[in-house]
Design brief:
Elements: E1 7-12, H1 21-34, E2 38-41, H2 59-74, E3 78-83, H3 95-107, E4 112-116, H4 126-132, H5 135-153, E5 158-162, H6 179-187, E6 193-196, H7 208-218, E7 223-226, E8 256-259, H8 269-280, H9 287-298, H10 312-321, H11 330-343, H12 353-372, H13 377-405, H14 427-435, E9 436-438, E10 444-446
Parallel strand pairs: 1-2, 1-8, 2-3, 3-4, 4-5, 5-6, 6-7, 7-8
Antiparallel strand pairs: 9-10
Helix pairs in contact: 1-2, 3-5, 4-5, 5-6, 8-9, 10-11, 11-12, 12-13
Length: 455
Amino acid sequence: MKTPAWISGVIEGFYGRPWTDAQRRQLFRWLQQWGLNTYMYAPKDDLKHRAIWRAPYDRAEAAGLKSLVADCRRRGLNFVYALAPGLDLHYATEFPVLQRKLRQVARLGGRAFAILFDDIPQRMRAADTRRFGSFAAAQSSVANELSAWLQQEVPGSRLWFCPTIYCGRMAAGPVAQSAYLREIGARLAPQIDIFWTGPEIVSETIPPASIRELQTVLRRPPLIWDNLHANDYDRRRIYLGPYAGRPTQLRSEVRGILCNPNCEFPLNYVPLRTFATYTRARRTWNPRNAGQAARAAWRAAFASRTRHRMTARDLHWLTDVFHLPFAHGPQAAQLLRNYATLLRTPPEYWGRTWPRLQRACRELAALLTSVTELADRDLCYALYRHVWDLKEEVTLMQAYLRWRESRPELAAGFVSGEHRPGVYRGGLVAGLQQLLVMDAAGHFTSALSKSGRAR
């Protein structure tokens, strides 16, 4: 199958437990149904993709991979197999090892490939330095040789490349001044597409102007690896909000966009469906409207085994409280504002804010019950921990505000009957977080004063 003129789809490229084959087949159905065209296999914790990349797939693994490739292609989708050898690749001597690994995948039906050098130490062995002189030269040489070999081995195949500096922040200055990126752009064969995540690893926005600057360095339009909904860097969070922060003008500046979404597969319906809508939008793009439409369609997945049905409002709450990395949904943002108002205001002035907040808390607590009784247990367990944590925090905050409402003595301390001090929010991680806290601007700061005492 030929590489699409404009690439759109999904990368399974996160750290954590890879998706199951059944989930990947569900993804293929979504991609086909929504008009997307590409899936890239790159789960960081498939050992034979990254940690022990030299090892061939055994018979059972090869059979599973062959079946996936065939199912993907039957649906008219481009299957891309990615290999990440950069942790310990001997650039000067291990090209035959790369050949053996990709030849096995080609014999299983693979026709498109990627070589990934992301998230690796920026150093080489002495022999590689003597041979190539620079990191960029070593990576480009291997990729160019691999691309030429693949053209002979699998006529019509394409190779994609992920650089070690793959976002603006990593360039440590203007991308035009990055010696590594400039060398990659100059040395890498022009038919090889290059991944880029935007200004950041997880980019709130990707301005078209930033991509035009990058094009002059890479000497080609980049292929966007979009981590907007990725959550492997903070597994306490999930992102159910719509695709956002990318103007439609961006599409004409890039080779395509592939989304690397939530680790929990069942939670990617709204993110991926709204991304598909974005790829078809004409001039304007309204994430909120797209999110509403996707949420309405997703509700069918929330069938219950009991009388506790997931309502449209429940689902609205769910996608608002677990929204996007840089923004809460409108209802969740209002909930935070109401809490903040009550915390800084004497109870006699709470007015209607307090009953509104209590009503919202009851709805969020009921949401947990609806989730626990879902017929789709995979969906239930993907949401369970996050909804439970939310319920506990809402319960604690309500209890604290009721205590405030009872007008306690100023010297009295609040103790929750349901949250044991030193146990709830406990453990080593909590202890570390109490030492290095985040201020209102999002910057980390020590919780200790210069004298060494807690502030």
